[in-house]
């Protein structure tokens, strides 16, 4: 039976910004299936400059961008919800129930989400973290481990010190090209992509030296097996 890993995020593009390298790597394995959940369709986001679409079209377009990006990364299942972008803190109880339903349906043994600070400090990121933690720990008959994806060495007040990191996942240059392609698929969000990754349009692009960082947030076992 294949291991299933659920990635819970707030917006289309969160998956590529945070765990794109891991997703591209897991896609090569026959013993793992991945599920990406986006709680919103990113309706409060920008439409690009020049605009890729109208504001009314944005949710539909961002859902399509998510589908394109996850196809590039080799994700097995994509689940989208329609919670209001920017207002997840008002829907945390319902969000917990939504995540529980996904866990019940797909039965992942490992779940990954944002850390409590949300990496960027976005309140939606923080809300999905809290809801995911509550859902996972209430369904420990299915889920065995919960991890936070984070960043290290940021100059702002978000991120985590290297000594708190449990897993440094390294991916290949080939997988980094997949990440670049997936980031570019989120066309409406190109301003954010270009701000975080100034070399995104260059062949020299790499995502944080091809590393992604994870903190073990919860586990059924005191010494859990490697999750990925």
UniProtKB/TrEMBL annotation:
Transmembrane intervals: none
Listed Gene3D superfamilies: LmbE-like
InterPro entries (alphabetical): GlcNAc_PI_deacetylase-related (IPR003737), LmbE-like_dom_sf (IPR024078)
GO molecular function per UniProt: hydrolase activity, acting on carbon-nitrogen (but not peptide) bonds, in linear amides
UniProt cross-references to PANTHER family, sorted A to Z: N-ACETYLGLUCOSAMINYL-PHOSPHATIDYLINOSITOL DE-N-ACETYLASE, N-ACETYLGLUCOSAMINYL-PHOSPHATIDYLINOSITOL DE-N-ACETYLASE-RELATED
Name under which the protein is recorded: LmbE family N-acetylglucosaminyl deacetylase
